[in-house]
Each structure stands twice: as C-alpha cells, then as structure tokens.
Design goal:
alpha/beta, 50% helix, five-stranded mixed beta sheet, 14 strands
C-alpha cells in the first residue's frame, strides 16, 4: 500500500472530448488506486507546441489524439518513447493497408476512425433536403447554407478529413471540391466540436466530421444519421508516451489499460461511440448490432491514407485553407451563391456568352491558388516546416500567406462579378 500511496499523477495531453476522457479517468483510477489521471485538453496543434516547448523532466506524460501525422511529427523530433511492451497482442497488425501500431513501437493505435457526413433528419425533412452520400453531393446548389465544417488549423480531426479528401481525389480536384463545399457551407466553426453540436441541435443540417462525432450523436438519441463516403479512410487514433515526462512508469500503465479489453469496451459507450482497435470477435459479443465494423469499412475504403504525405504538407494545407477559405468565407459564399443563381438561370435560357462568363467565374472561385506541382515541391514544403525561429523562412511564409489572402479575395469578387454578368445574359 505504501507504493500506491506514493503513486504520482499521469498527465495526458489530448484533443478528445470530456465524455471520453472522463470515462477513462474514472475507470482507470478505479482499477489503479493511488494513480491520478490529469487531463490537459488542447487541440492537436496546440498540444504538439506545448510538449515541444517544455524542458526534459517537466513534460506531460501522454499524448492522445486522432491524427497519425501529429505522432509522426513528435516521433521525428525524438519526443516519444518506445511503448511496444504495452501493446495488446490481440490487436490486428493492420486495418486495411494501414498499420494500427507504429512499426517502430513509438505509439499505439487506441481506437479507429473514418471520415464522413452526419446530418439532422428533422432539419433535412423540414428543408426538404435529400440525404447526402458523397463529399461531392455537398457541392450541389440544393445544399447552399445548410452544411458546416471546421478548419484544419483548428482541429486535428478536420485536418484528417480534409487530407483524406485531398488524397482520395488528388490535390487539384480535392481543393476544387473543398472550395465548392466551403462556399456552400453556412459556417467554418471555431472548433471541430462546433460542427456535431450544431447538427445535433439543428443549427446546421449537415456536418463534415470524423465518424465518432456522428455516431455518438446517433447512439445518444439525437435525430442524426452518419455515412462513410466512398472516398474515406480508416486510420488509428493513437496514444504515446512523451520522452522526458514526469511519471513515465505509471503512464505506461494507462497506455496498456487503454488498449486492454476493458479499456476498449469503454469506446462502445453511446456518448463516446468510437471504433475499437480490437476486432468485434475479441470483445465478447458486446458490440451493438448496428455498430460499424472498421475492418469491413477499411476493405471498401478508396483511400489508402499516407501519413508521411500528410505530415509533409500539414502546415501548407492548414495555411491554404485559412487564407482562402476561413478568412475569406464571406466572399467565397457570395461568389458561390452568384454562381448557383447564374447556373440555374442559364439552364432555363442557355446562351454562349453566359456560359463563357460562368466558366470564368467557376475557374476563379474554385481553382486552388497552389497547384499540384508546387504542392509537391520539396523546397516549397520545407518553407512551412522550418523552425519558427528562422526569421527568413517566417518572412517568406507570411508573404505567401498575405498574397494568398489578397488573391482569394480578388478572385472571389471577380468570380461574383462574372456570375452576375452571366445571370444578366439569361434574363
């Protein structure tokens, strides 16, 4: 008992919602008297910065988040300890083609996740909207003002959703779809939680979300449904031990607990509704009948997620999204609405001049400012991954971001003008 009395506090940095972290805190502390779990809730990006800035011996113990590329960043900076000994041998090696645990043992898969669309059934019925099935459905005029998403710079789960779409469709086509979907969206929310909360309460009709947001709403009794589009991926949410932490040995106990059968069963709580890394056959028949099987979804998924690619362009994707969508959403929405209006009018009274103007509007509004060749340029990507203390790189990045922001505003205003001219030709 003396050892238990001297047991320390395990500090966990996580982006996960309180419903999940509180369930694990209560269950783990009950199973391990004397060990306390301290939860520091931070976005994935904030969490990485927090860990990186603290000295050895003062760092938190555990990093727990959905983004595989975030763990690659931490691993690349020697901020993770090997946790292979804490792995559950009943966990399969892969989900689809993706390793569940890091092959070098630097972090473990703790849950599985896919990306898709959730919608409020009452909202959809009241607005006479069809249920969406694919990302591309949300580009249709009928959904204008009815959807919502967050920004990848503010949410690790949204970053994964955006990156999944970009990897599935290719850079240029993916950004074209993102710009059209964003132009149709009612809001780009401050945090990823704002999207499912807004769909659950009927503020928004449809949300682009990681699956557990949609499934938790559905299984908790909200009038919502969730679908995995064809272009999706199933990847692990991970847990890892931070090097130079205060209480590594007891932190290892929590990591082992989180992937144990007992820890995995907590994921099935309706308020959590995450997909276990243990297959349904290893969970003693306790998986609800309507629960998704991630291993089956992964077989059908069209995206083989590349976390190295996602890590390499992480900051570029976030920056581009913010400068051309988040900060210019009002102008993008106005251009999108004008394009929809002109498209509808020209369908009734087609004419060559109007169609040419409409094409100019679409090209201006929905073509990404950075094309595939630049996005694959190693020197360009290196600018965005340079040390923040590198003043020269920072100046270049800031200059690029300012240009993107200005160019996006100008493009959207010009696109709106061309669309309004196209509309006038059909009157």
């Amino acid at each position: 008992m003396a050892g238990a009395a001297q047991a320390g506090t395990v500090t966990v940095v996580t982006s996960f919602p309180k419903e999940l972290t509180q369930a694990y805190k209560v269950a783990f502390e009950k199973a391990n008297p004397g060990i306390k779990l301290e939860i520091l809730n931070k976005s994935t990006v904030q969490g990485i910065s927090y860990v990186r800035e603290l000295p050895v011996g003062q760092r938190p113990d555990i990093f727990w988040a959905s983004a595989p590329d975030a763990f690659e960043v931490l691993a690349g900076q020697k901020l993770l300890e090997n946790v292979a000994a804490q792995a559950n041998k009943a966990v399969p090696e892969k989900v689809g083609n993706y390793p569940i645990n890091n092959p070098q043992g630097l972090y473990l898969g703790q849950a599985l996740a896919g990306y898709g669309l959730m919608w409020n059934t009452r909202y959809m019925a009241a607005n006479k909207l069809p249920a969406p099935a694919q990302w591309s459905d949300l580009m249709k005029p009928v959904y204008f003002g009815h959807a919502a998403m967050s920004a990848p710079s503010r949410s690790g789960t949204t970053h994964l959703t955006v990156e999944t779409l970009l990897q599935g469709e290719g850079w240029d086509k993916g950004w074209n779809q993102l710009l059209q979907i964003s132009g149709n969206s009612a809001a780009i929310t401050e945090r990823s939680f704002g999207v499912p909360d807004g769909v659950n309460n009927g503020q928004f009709g449809i949300g682009l979300v990681i699956d557990f947001f949609g499934l938790a709403g559905k299984f908790s009794g909200f009038p919502v449904e969730f679908v995995y589009p064809d272009v999706t991926a199933v990847v692990p949410a991970n847990i890892g031990l931070i090097s130079g932490s205060k209480n590594p040995e007891e932190a290892r106990k929590f990591i082992a607990y989180s992937v144990s059968t007992e820890g995995q069963l907590l994921l099935l709580d309706p308020k959590i509704s995450r997909l276990p890394v243990l297959p349904p056959s290893a969970l003693g028949g306790k998986v609800p009948p309507a629960y998704p099987n991630p291993f089956e979804i992964a077989k059908r998924a069209k995206v083989h997620f590349d976390s190295d690619l996602s890590e390499a362009r992480y900051n570029v994707v976030s920056s581009m999204f913010d400068q051309t969508i988040t900060f210019r959403h009002k102008e993008l929405k106005a251009a999108t609405k004008a394009i929809h209006d002109a498209t509808a009018a020209l369908a009734k009274k087609p004419n060559a001049q109007g169609q040419a103007l409409l094409k100019q509007a679409r090209d201006l509004a929905f073509t990404p400012l950075v094309g595939t060749s630049m996005a694959n340029d190693k020197e360009f990507l290196a600018l965005f991954t340079s040390n923040k203390k590198d003043a020269a790189s920072n100046k270049q990045v800031t200059g690029l971001e300012d240009r993107w922001n200005t160019q996006a505003r100008d493009n959207y205003e010009r696109a709106r003008g061309f669309a309004e001219q196209a509309l006038a030709t059909a009157r």
